[in-house]
Amino acid sequence: MTSPANPTRKGRWLRRMVRGGIVAVVALTGTSVWSHFHYQPPPPVPPEAFGNRYAPRELRADLDYFVRTAEQIHPDLYHVVSKEDVSALKRELQRQIDRPLTRKEFFPIAARLAASLGDGHTVVFIPSEEIEDAIQSGAQWFPFDVGDLNEDGLTVKAVYAEKCPVAVNDTIVSIHGHDARSLYDEFYQWHSGEKEFYRKGRTLRT
Fold first, then answer.
1. 87 lies in a domain?
2. What Å distances lie between residue 148 and 63, 123, 173, 179, 205, CA to CA?
3. Average per-residue pLDDT in the chain?
4. How many CA atoms lie within 13 A of 139 on its CB side?
5. Assigned domain for 42 exists
6. What is the mean pLDDT of residues 147-160?
7. In 3-state terms, the chain is what percent helix, strand and coil (to 5)?
8. Model pTM score
């Protein structure tokens, strides 16, 4: 439950990246934030780092660092939402961090802060290395896609398995006991975008 070694060194490395014109924040988790003005992929995260947990003080500092860096680089960060509202959400999210988290656990928190800006070019991506590792390890995935949200739940758009228990146009009302619409509302908060249809599309693909 302790933080990996050399957090100060990592922070210096990212600050050098930002000074060089690259947006890559939330340093200690390896999660990247990008703008179409400045982007370079971050270095890959090795599998042995997936389970690393980072101290609350480090994660709270990452949120501060995200906002500070975005303010320095974004041409009009508060065009959609006020600085006061973003600061209030940041403080709320920081209060929620009450234990060490892995970068996968920290992702929804950081992504929600980025998405609150209402800018499709300022994004916190889902940690792709963990997803790829799960695929390579044979993790099971839902054999269908959903394509819309109705008053009862999620509408099935396509089915990819012969013995799938649902069919096209069926409605998914719950997943593992969780209300489907509530899950959609939660996931929606993670996705950046200027337009409702764009955020909705990304949410349905989550």
1. yes
2. 32, 23, 12, 15, 10
3. 81
4. 9
5. yes
6. 92
7. 45, 10, 45
8. 0.74
